Structure formats: structure tokens, C-alpha cells
Amino acid sequence: MNSIHTQAPRLLIVGTGDVAWRALPWLLQRFRVFALCRSQENAVRWRMAGAVPVIGDLDSRHTLRRLRGLAHYVLHAAPPATEHAGDPRTKRLLAALKQGQSLPRKVVYISTTGVYGDCAGARIKESQPRKAANPRARRRVEAESLLRSALRALPASARRPLCRAADRLRSSGSPPGLVILRAPGIYAADRLPTSRLRAGTPALLPAEDGYTSHIHAEDLAMAAALACFRVRGGRALNVNDQTELKMGEWFDTVADAFGLARPARISRLEAEHTLPAPLLSFMRESRRLDNTRLREELRLRLKYRDVQAGLAAALNSPGGDHPA
Which of 61, 116, 137, 269 is 20 to 30 A from 292, comparing alpha carbons? Predict the structure, then answer.
């Protein structure tokens, strides 16, 4: 059972994956949490954890009718469908959430730093123009734009009417609108590239390699939860830790931590002819992220300041990927 009264502000989770699951215990202490679930099996899991499951599928418009007028707050963590150029899932979600001219008071959307495209290793802030270079990131750009347009079009007075508890939440500093969390490579004890290392997949030569950024799944989950209360609407935040590594250095760091062989290094030209397209799309981009907004506006204290701290925790985790 949910641990708070049914008159608490209602929050809808869309995208019941790892990050939302990690955020759930914290959210249950402050919201009546609903979770959009595609299957009965998933619904049982979320119900047992304390959420109220709502059966529905973002790929099927008619299954989303129960979302209308349901939530004051939405945590949108669902990825776009890979078979589309845009993001019809977010379009269907917005259509389902609308009640007359009303929308939820606040939407927190987990996006990707891939929307910036290649920045040639430069350190970038959230004001960096979005120049997504691959289909995966372009779908995220469309999702961000759809959400911005929908929530900007309505004045705050036209958003979801608040219950008393939600009104208190607003008066305590929960501004309305959209907050976009742009996450880089998400890792955790069970989300590490150890299979890639064991397969012997090469990395780029140091001189040709690009910078990659990281965030532990637990820190991203806490950022998503805190964004419901902090940060004014209309803001985007880079959600990354303090690590500055090139991609090959990241793989070397993981290999060293788990007693695996470091990957061989090849030229970019060799990589273009031998590596799969999804991996190449990451290798073609290099950027370092400024996380000032994360620290000063969201006031998030990272549990894992850098990947070394995260990997140390992974080595002591009973559910992690440990050396063979």
C-alpha cells in the first residue's frame, strides 16, 4: 500500500524502467504514485512496491484513456520508439493527459545529452544549440520540443487543478512547467560494459578518441525526484558527474576495476569499417558537460561523484557484474 494519504498530490510515472524504479521509494513518501504499465506482470511488481498501476501502452492510443486528468505531476522516462523518425509516444501521452485545456502542473522528462551532437570535446552548458546527429538523439529533440510547446502554450492557471496537499507542495516552492534532465551514459553495478570488454571490442586510439560523460542510475533517479520540487519550469539540466574521461579511458577504467583485459586501440578509419553502427554513433561525438545547474539549482549532492566511486560500489554490490 502507498504510505501516504490518498489526498496527497498525484504523480504519474511513464516509463517504468530502472531509473524510475530507483526513484520510487523516495517519491512514495511525498506523492500518491501511479505507474503506467504495459503488462499485468509489470503491474503486479509496481503494486507490490507501493504504486498504483495503470495498464496502458504508449504505442496504443485507446489504452491511455485512464490518464486523462489523473496526475498533478508526471515523471516521463519512456524512450521513443526506434521505428519512428519522431516521437509519437510523447504525442500520444500529451493527448491523453489533457483534460479540456488543462495539463499536469509539472512534467519532468529524462532526455539525453545526445541532443547536443558532436561538440569536438568542448565544455558545454544547457544553452548549447541542439544539433542531434543520429536518429536516436533526434527523436529526443522532438520529444523535448513537443513537451515545451504543450506546457508553454498553457498558462499556469490552466494546468491541473491542485488538491490541498498539492497546493501546499506548490506554495513550498514547486514551480510549474517542464524540467528536462539531459543524461549522458547511465551506469550502475548491473549496467557496465563488461560484456563488451569480454568480447574484445576495440576502442579508439587516444589521439582520435572523444570525451564521454556519465551518471550513476541512482543519482539520476534522485535528480528526477528532486526536479518535481526544485527548479523552475522551462529549464533543462545536464545530469552528469564530475568525471572527465575519453571513451577508451572509461573502458580501461572498468577493465582495471574488474580484472579484465583493456580493449585494443584502433584508428577511427578502422573503426568505421569494423564496428557496428550504434557504437560508431557514440564514437563520433565528443563533449564535456557543465553541471552547474545540477549543483546550484537542483542542489543535488551526488552519491557517486565520479565513476571511480561508482565502480567501487559496484564491486561490493551483490547484484552487480563481477569478475568471472
Answer: 137
**Amino acid letter, 89:** R
Buried/exposed 221-245: b ≥16 CB within 10 Å, e otherwise: bbbbbbbbbbbebebbbbbbbebeb
Q: How does DSSP assign 209-257, residue by residue? A: --EE-EEEHHHHHHHHHHTTTSS-TTEEEE---S--EEHHHHHHHHHHH
The three cell numbers locating residue 32: 500518491
Strand 211-212 versus strand 245-246 pairing type: antiparallel
Which of 189, 186, 195, 185 minimizes the C-alpha distance to 260? Answer: 195
Closest CA to 71 of 124, 113, 35, 116: 35
Question: Which of 4, 11, 24 lies closest to 222, judged by CA?
Answer: 24
Domains and CATH numbers, the chain: 10-183+230-236 (3.40.50.720)
34-64 pLDDT per residue, tens: 999 999 999 999 999 999 999 999 999 999 9
- Find out whether 272 and 280 touch, Cβ atoms under 8 Å: yes
pLDDT digits over 121-138, tens only?
A: 999 999 999 999 999 999
Question: H-type helices in 161-216, by residue range?
Answer: 164-171, 194-199
Q: What residues pair up with 220 in beta bridges, in sequence order?
A: none
